[in-house]
Amino acid sequence: MFEDFDRGFWPPFDQSLFTTEPLFRRELKWESMPVDVVESEKAYEITAELPGMDEKNMEVKVVNGTLTIKGERQEEKEEKEKDYYLRERNFGSFERSFTIPESVDADKIEASFKKGVLAVKLPKTVEAQKPA
Question: Domain containing 88 — which CATH number?
Fold first, then answer.
């Protein structure tokens, strides 16, 4: 009886509750990573907030004029108490690519990661910094 209630009205109801995979078993995949891109006179800066990420699980690389930021988060939590046992696993991945403008000096690109915030600085060439 409940399987047909509001079917198609709201995404959780477009399938039977008994055929839907529970959220805790799904892999989270961030289709797009939210970033801020700021241009100054001397550089472009890309900033991304990545809470819960470790630097060792991220990769920032430049290949053929494309900057790619990629990462994966894995988290496990386990609680053992007298009357219950809880074990949770959470994981997800993301990847975002940017075409580097010709005005960027690709050999001087720098990245830093502090307190869950990734900052990538793309300095402009000397020619691009001159006022027009």
Answer: 2.60.40.790
